[in-house]
Automatic annotation (TrEMBL), chain A:
It comes from the Eukaryota. One of its GO terms (cellular component) is TRAPP complex. Part of the multisubunit transport protein particle (TRAPP) complex. The keyword Endoplasmic reticulum applies. Keywords: Endoplasmic reticulum, ER-Golgi transport, Golgi apparatus, Transport. GO terms for biological process: endoplasmic reticulum to Golgi vesicle-mediated transport. Pfam families: Sybindin. This is Trafficking protein particle complex subunit.
UniProtKB/TrEMBL annotation, chain B:
It is found in: Endoplasmic reticulum; Golgi apparatus, cis-Golgi network. GO terms for cellular component: endoplasmic reticulum; Golgi apparatus; TRAPP complex. It comes from the Eukaryota. Homodimer. CDD domains: TRAPPC3_bet3. May play a role in vesicular transport from endoplasmic reticulum to Golgi. One of its GO terms (biological process) is Golgi vesicle transport. This is Trafficking protein particle complex subunit. The keyword Endoplasmic reticulum applies.
């Protein structure tokens, strides 16, 4: 089952490049760290094999979430870094960007994490990420032949 | 960009694709009837309905979160309110009321005045121990487990057994924090 082609999810926000497609890579993880979906459209440099790449990405996000929650200046002290958080605590970051790419992230309360790596000048991607989540729900979750926790084919 | 506010149950119910209520009720009745014929033991059927509900709940939670835009609930009280007002409205078209909070806020009752699953249903004498709507308790348990809350859901009152309303007791056993799934040495 084809999930969807790359052109559907290009953010329709202006970008300096001439081509329409901004997205470089996409990952979807579930709460146990299993990578449910990985798609790439334009990735010139590849450093690790797929397994390690997924683990690295998941670990990065897990730690970033933890770090951003602990450094939150608007909330009460919560304990040391490294302690697993209770579900209601903590804020969640949306994106970070470097000089070569921008990574946007969305996590649902049920643990599904959607990550989009795009061109650095791309605007706020929260709406497109929500749209992708809706697509996930419509086609993956409602598919009776799909077992939750396995790869999306 | 301002965050999108959570949508009310009525708004979502108006937008969602709906099926005929009678078709839904009759299909559910056929499922329970078939389970009774296959398994014959009322306890087994109760357990099987709960399992089925759990599997449904695990998937339903994603659809619920996607359509209703609720953010993370701060505590269990808010969770129960959201289930009663938004969840039940969105999927079954009814609203439940939340009552009977216990002292530490970990257990409450959801009271349903009408229940579309039990239209036209009467329990015969041979099936007196059957919890006809046990699938609902499984759904709630499955859904809450996917948002890191381990709960226990039981039926307190059941109209098919002669009470005046349906009452579900939802008890929070514990909140499971998110853990890093990979082992350090791998």
């Amino acid at each position: 089952m084809q999930f969807f082609g790359g052109s559907e999810i290009s953010p329709s926000l202006p970008a300096p490049t001439a081509s329409g497609n901004n997205a470089l890579m996409m990952y979807v993880f579930n709460r146990n760290g299993i990578c449910l979906l990985y798609r790439e459209w334009n990735r010139p440099l590849r450093t690790l094999n797929a397994q390690q790449d997924h683990k690295l990405m998941f670990g990065l996000l897990f730690s970033l979430k933890s770090l951003t929650a602990k450094m939150d200046p608007t909330s009460m002290d919560k304990g040391n870094l490294g302690v697993p958080q209770l579900p209601r605590q903590g804020c969640s970051f949306h994106s970070f960007h470097t000089n070569t790419y921008k990574l946007s992230f969305m996590e649902t309360p049920s643990g599904i994490k959607i990550i989009l790596v795009t061109h650095p000048r791309t605007g706020d991607l929260r709406e497109p990420l929500k749209y992708i989540y809706n697509l996930y729900v419509e086609h993956v979750v409602k598919n009776p032949l799909y077992t939750p926790g396995t790869l999306i084919k | 960009m301002a965050p999108v506010a959570p949508r009310s149950g009525d708004a979502i119910f108006a937008n969602v694709e709906r099926v005929n209520a009678e078709l839904f009720t009759l299909t559910y009745g056929a499922i329970v009837r078939q389970l009774l014929t296959d398994l014959e033991e009322v306890e087994e059927v109760n357990k099987q309905l709960d399992e089925m509900g759990y599997n449904i709940g695990v998937r339903l939670i994603d659809e619920f979160l996607a359509k209703s835009n609720v953010s993370r609930c701060v505590d269990f009280k808010e969770t129960a309110e959201v289930i009663a007002k938004v969840g039940f409205k969105m999927f079954l078209g009814i609203t439940a009321t939340v009552t009977n909070w216990d002292a530490d806020g970990t257990s409450c009752s959801l009271v349903l005045e009408d229940n579309p699953l039990v239209d036209f249903v009467e329990l015969p004498d041979t099936c007196q121990g059957l919890y006809y709507c046990n699938i609902l308790s499984g759904v709630i348990r499955g859904g809450l487990e996917m948002v890191s809350m381990k709960t226990e859901v039981t039926w307190l009152r059941d109209m098919l057994r002669g009470d005046d309303a349906y009452e579900l007791q939802v008890k929070l056993l514990k909140q499971v924090p998110e853990e890093y799934p990979y082992k350090d040495d791998e």
